[in-house]
Write a structure and sequence with these properties.
By secondary structure, this protein is of the alpha/beta class. 40% of the residues lie in helices and 20% in strands. It contains 13 helices and 11 strands. Strand 2, helix 3 and strand 3 (70-72) form a beta-alpha-beta unit.
């Protein structure tokens, strides 16, 4: 069984408090209350350490119309609870969002256009390792270098994992995609119990990727440990050689600052996924299309 270190998340007050407050504001201000008034000028985020959290703080400064808005950090689970409640009542909501994520399979959502380009274009997920990893574990390095898949693959595991454990969802996906996973290990010798520590982030997208690559490595004879930590800690651990490798970093925007800080002491093994996106997300029924629409105008 793949071992994971305990996950420490920053907790937030009840996920329903914001929507309750939004409902009160809407009632006080009438049906024509602005989106900002209805939401108390609050964007719902996820964990404070997430790259999208830092990027959204930059967006608040980059857009003049967001000067009165605040980002309320939460957790991914808390954000999902608020999406579920808002859509059930067809209420407005603005959240930090990214693909791949199963919320886009469950709900009709849309990204707001980003004219200032704060969130960047499409993101790429990279595989990285500590310096010396290729020499120490050439077989693991080769497998990780071959690891490459699609947004839909990750999103399918994330969706399936809502009804089962992530390791089971990853195992099912592997069995259904043997042609692909076999290509990652083709011609690479098996090992006998060599230990390897992978770093990852405590979010569903990275739970999916770490479970898949961990199970492939275990099938090839490795004893795998996965450490789920904050991005800043992971990059530092890679730079200091405390973690062997990761398939989790999103670049160039989401974790780009950490790569600038630690990149000289980390091996970037290349892209394992293309076409990921980050930004501000709203329910599709909201009559806005751009971040610039988040003003005091009526909805």
């Amino acid at each position: 069984m793949i071992k994971s270190t305990p996950l420490k998340l920053v907790s937030l007050a009840s996920a329903g408090l914001l929507l309750a407050a939004c409902g009160d504001d809407a009632a006080q201000n009438g049906e024509d209350a602005s989106i900002g008034d209805q939401l108390d000028y609050t964007i719902t985020g996820i964990e404070p350490g997430a790259g999208i959290t830092e990027t959204t703080e930059q967006a608040l400064n980059a857009y003049d119309n967001l000067s009165d808005w605040e980002l309320e950090t939460s957790s991914t689970a808390g954000m999902m609870g608020q999406i579920d409640s808002a859509i059930a009542n067809e209420e407005p909501l603005v959240v930090t969002g990214w693909t791949p994520h199963y919320k886009f399979e469950m709900y009709d959502l849309k990204f707001l256009e980003d004219p200032e380009g704060v969130y960047g274009d499409s993101e790429f997920v990279h595989t990285m390792s500590r310096i010396g990893f290729e020499e120490d574990m050439p077989e693991a390095y080769a497998i990780l270098e071959n690891f490459s898949w699609e947004v839909d693959d990750m999103q399918q595991i994330m969706l399936d994992a809502q009804d089962m454990e992530f390791d089971e969802a990853a195992s099912d996906w592997i069995e259904e995609n043997r042609d692909l996973t076999d290509s990652w290990v083709e011609g690479i010798d098996e090992v006998d119990g060599q230990s390897i520590e992978l770093g990852s982030f405590p979010w569903d997208s990275e739970r999916a990727s770490s479970q898949v690559i961990s199970q492939i490595l275990e099938e090839h004879g490795f004893d795998v440990t996965v450490s789920n930590v904050d991005p800043s800690i992971l990059f530092q651990a890679l730079a200091q050689g405390e973690v062997d490798a990761t398939v989790a970093p999103w670049l160039p925007t989401t974790q780009g600052a950490y790569l600038e800080q630690y990149g000289d002491d980390i091996v970037d093994m290349g892209v394992n996924m293309e076409g990921t996106v980050i930004g501000l997300v709203v329910p599709a029924y909201m009559d806005i299309d751009s971040i610039e629409d988040l003003t005091g105008d009526t909805d």
